[in-house]
Design brief:
Mean pLDDT: 79
Low-confidence stretches: 104-110, 112-134
Largest sheet: 8 strands, parallel
Number of strands: 14
Number of helices: 1
Distance between the termini: 74 Å
Helix content: under 10%
Structural class: mainly beta
Oligomer: single chain
Shape: globular
Length: 142
C-alpha cells in the first residue's frame, strides 16, 4: 500500500507500507519493509525501513535494517550497527520545540551601556595594538 500526500497525527503510528509525502506524528515506528519519501517530524522515530528526506525528532533510532537519507535534527540519535545515516546530523533541539520556547535573552557585553553597540577586540590601555602578520608573496621566477 502506498499513500501519496501528507500525514499528520497526534498519536502513534506503525507503518508497514509506503508514504510519498511529509509525515508529522508523535511516535513513529517504520517497519522493515516500509518507506517514506518526504520529511518526517516526530517526538520518537524508530526506523527499521527507509526514509528519504529530512528528519526532525526528539529521539531518532535507526535499527540494523534501517536507513535515513537526509539531514537529521534531534536531541538524541541511536544508530544500531548496520544502520545507515546519509546526511548531516544536528544534535540539538528540533525547530518545532525551539519555536514553542521563549527566545533567549541577550546578555550585554561587560562594560556596555544599555542600547549601545557591542565592541570587539577593544585594546587595553597601555598595550600595543595587535598586529596580524601576512605571509610575504613568493618571488616570481626570473
Amino acid at each position: 500500500m502506498t499513500i501519496r500526500g501528507s500525514l499528520s497525527s497526534t498519536s502513534g503510528l506503525e507503518l508497514a507500507g509506503s508514504i510519498e509525502g511529509d509525515v508529522e506524528v508523535d511516535e513513529l515506528t517504520l517497519g522493515s519493509s516500509a518507506t517514506i519519501v518526504g520529511a518526517v517530524q516526530g517526538t520518537e522515530v524508530v526506523v527499521e525501513g527507509s526514509i528519504r528526506g529530512d528528519v526532525e525528532a526528539t529521539k531518532l533510532m535507526i535499527s540494523t535494517s534501517g536507513s535515513v537519507d537526509g539531514d537529521v535534527t534531534a536531541t538524541a540519535v541511536v544508530i544500531d550497527e548496520g544502520g545507515i545515516l546519509e546526511g548531516r546530523c544536528h544534535m540539538g533541539t528540533p525547530r518545532a520545540e525551539v519555536a514553542e520556547s521563549e527566545p533567549a535573552a541577550k546578555v550585554p557585553e561587560q562594560g556596555a551601556s544599555p542600547g549601545s553597540s557591542p565592541t570587539f577586540n577593544k585594546p587595553v590601555a597601555g598595550s600595543p595594538s595587535p598586529q596580524r602578520s601576512r605571509p610575504k608573496p613568493a618571488a616570481a621566477p626570473a
